[in-house]
Design brief:
- Homotetramer.
- This is Single-stranded DNA-binding protein.
- One of its GO terms (cellular component) is nucleoid.
- This protein is mainly β and 162 residues long.
- The protein is built from two helices and seven strands; from the N terminus they run E-E-E-E-H-E-E-H-E.
- Helices cover 9% and strands 42% of the residues.
- Strands 1-3-4-6-5 form a five-stranded mixed β-barrel.
Length: 162
């Protein structure tokens, strides 16, 4: 069947800073863990249950450099990509498998200055005199980079549909 699709959309928090690997020829790969959470109430016991699922995110080249520069542990990010399973051999000679998300688009959702990885600055309260932050712009790894267009909307309303 020719009409198949391999697409993953995640919104979660980074579990660590981006780890970079550089190669000859100027190419690079960035990897980071992403946590998504599910919460519900158990019907039989009435207790609140929280499950965390961890995803291995892989970003390449310019997109990896952008993620390394701006993403810190604990930041919220939207990731769109595809599933890829890699087979590798461990040091005992056993075949092992890793499932990763090959990132094709991402959008940083943590507002500038509120990143948990920025230490003291993140603990300072926001002042009302500060200008509003521009809305997050998605980064598509499949298209050539284009200069960011300035936004005129200064409302603090999220543009997410949920």
């Amino acid at each position: 069947m020719a009409g198949t699709i391999n697409k993953v959309i995640l919104i979660g928090h980074t579990g660590d800073d981006v780890k970079m690997n550089y190669f000859e020829g100027g190419n690079c790969i960035g990897r980071f863990p992403l946590a998504t959470n599910e919460e519900y109430v158990n019907r039989t016991t009435g207790e609140r249950v929280s499950n965390t699922e961890w995803h291995n995110i892989v970003v390449r080249n310019k997109a990896a450099e952008i993620c390394e520069k701006y993403l810190k542990k604990g930041d919220k990010v939207y990731v769109e990509g595809r599933l890829k399973t890699r087979k590798w051999t461990d040091d005992k000679g056993m075949d092992r498998y890793s499932t990763e998300i090959q990132c094709q688009e991402f959008t940083f959702l943590t507002p500038k200055g509120e990143s948990q990885g920025q230490g003291q600055q993140a603990q300072q309260p926001r002042q009302a005199a500060q200008p509003a932050q521009p809305k997050a712009q998605p980064y598509n790894t499949n298209q050539p980079s284009q200069p960011a267009q300035p936004t005129t909307d200064t409302s603090d309303v999220d543009d997410l549909p949920f």
